[in-house]
Specification:
FAD/NAD(P)-binding domain, Flavocytochrome C3, Chain A, domain 1, alpha/beta, elongated, 14 helices, 455 residues, single chain
């Protein structure tokens, strides 16, 4: 079997892999991206495509007071200090460059999104594509890769890595017809996502979500984690994940969290609230799954319905019949088969908290938002596992570290393959930080790998 040589090889053509490929190509490196699917998608395509960035010119123009230091403080507050503080600061400091580099250097149409704050963010810092979808972001990244002349080998599954000492020398690739190819490289970047689609690894590391719906890319099989452990790489935060407490039950479409942050709430089958929904959509997944039938209902009104029409996911949920509406709370209760009296009492209680006439026993602040009013809307939801946040420990250049703290000289990782900045569980996930880590670590890995490959 002949061996072909490519200086920089990347496994995975999602957001991390294509960002890494663009960064490496910027520095003149020849790059090959290996992707098991017929077309590049990855977890990025299933996201909302939002990337937070702090201290940007666009924020300054809008009068938004933000900085990498403030962003890092938000990350540490959300994780209760349980993440790598130095890496959190590093990624926050790189965030503005990541967005500007993708937009100005490679034509990815990212713009600052205003109007509301996402859970845990103290400033408006979210950037997204015009339709706010991961598919749109992936299409822009793929077009940029084509313009850069980057080779993407699809329907190719990476198998065994080869090594000489601590240096990775290459890998084998299996094609759909069963044939294999051998590829050598000067640097290898693992961008093949996390392990949310590997039932054995989820059961081992995240038992609370072992029975949850997995709403992620099926290629999340934990390949990078398994390879890393075989090599003796350091791993951390394997219990960390991004969940979502608003996946439309039976429809597989997320009912996104601006609905909650702007005043909506959730009830269980008894018509009662059961948590502080605004604490975060990730940790809400387990709370929803702890309710009878593992479901809840997101309750909102016409104002929030109109707000959510800006999101493709919500319009898809409407088209799928996942959203029900009625003129009165009593009619809504009948339509979704919730007990009328408890639901009415809950709605009245939320109204009183919105008027600051009562306090929330779960600690949520409803103040500062308009009081909800009919017509009323509801969506039946369940808690889902979107993707894992733990993985291989990397340094500032996304180089994989060994268990003793030293590094592999030419092995890099990013995105779901690498340890994120969400701490050890679900409650540390800050909206957009998965995609921020994916694109930023991809950028850093690509630049470092290119410097290694081209000298």
């Amino acid at each position: 079997m002949d061996t072909i040589h490519v200086p920089v090889v990347i496994i995975g053509a999602g957001g991390t892999g294509l960002a890494a490929a663009l960064a490496a190509a910027d520095l003149g490196a020849e790059v090959l991206v290996i992707e098991r699917d017929p077309t590049p998608l990855g977890s990025t395509a299933m996201s909302t495509g939002l990337i937070p960035a702090a201290g940007t010119p666009e924020q300054a123009a809008e009068g938004i007071d933000d900085s990498p230091e403030r962003f890092a403080a938000d990350i540490l507050a959300k994780t209760k200090g349980a993440t790598d503080a130095a890496m959190a600061r590093h990624i926050a400091e790189e965030s503005a460059d990541t967005v500007a580099w993708l937009r100005d250097g490679h034509g990815v149409p990212l713009a600052l999104i205003g109007g509301f704050l996402y859970p845990g963010h103290s400033a408006q810092r979210m950037y997204g594509t015009p339709h706010r979808t991961g598919g749109e972001l992936m299409a822009a990244l793929e077009s940029a890769a084509e313009r850069a002349g980057i080779m993407v080998l699809t329907e190719a599954t990476a198998r065994d890595l080869t090594r000489e000492g601590d240096r990775i020398t290459g890998l084998s690739v299996e094609r759909p017809d069963g044939t294999t190819e051998s590829i050598s490289c000067d640097a290898l970047i693992l961008a093949c996502s996390g392990f949310g689609g590997a039932a054995d690894l989820v059961a081992r590391h995240i038992p609370d979500m072992a029975e949850a719906v997995f709403h992620g890319h099926p290629g999340n099989k934990g390949d990078a984690l398994r390879w890393g452990e075989e090599l003796g790489a350091a791993v951390a935060d394997l219990g960390a994940y991004q969940g979502h407490g608003g996946l439309a039950a039976g429809h597989g479409v997320p009912i996104l969290w601006p609905l909650i942050m702007e005043g909506g709430f959730q009830v269980n089958a008894d018509g009662l609230r059961f948590s502080n929904e605004a604490a975060g959509y990730s940790e809400q997944a387990a709370k929803v799954n702890a309710q009878p039938g593992h479901v809840a209902w997101s309750i909102f009104d016409q104002r929030l319905h109109e707000l959510m029409l800006d999101f493709d996911d919500y319009r898809e949920a409407l088209g799928a019949g996942a959203v029900v509406w009625a003129d009165t709370v009593e009619e809504l209760a009948g339509a979704v088969r919730l007990p009328v009296e408890p639901l009415t009492t809950t709605v009245e209680g939320v109204a009183a908290m919105t008027r600051s006439e009562a306090s929330d026993p779960f600690g949520r602040d409803f103040g500062g938002k308009p009081e909800l009013a009919g017509p009323w809307y509801a969506a039946k939801v369940t808690g889902a596992l979107f993707h894992t946040q733990g993985g291989l420990v990397v340094d500032r250049d996304a180089r994989v570290l060994k268990a003793d703290g030293s590094s592999f000289p030419n092995l890099f990782a990013g995105g779901g393959a690498a340890r994120g900045i969400s701490g050890p569980g679900a409650n540390g996930y800050l909206a957009g930080n998965g995609l921020l880590a994916a694109t930023t670590l991809g950028k850093l890995a690509g630049r470092a790998a290119a410097r290694l490959a081209v000298g």
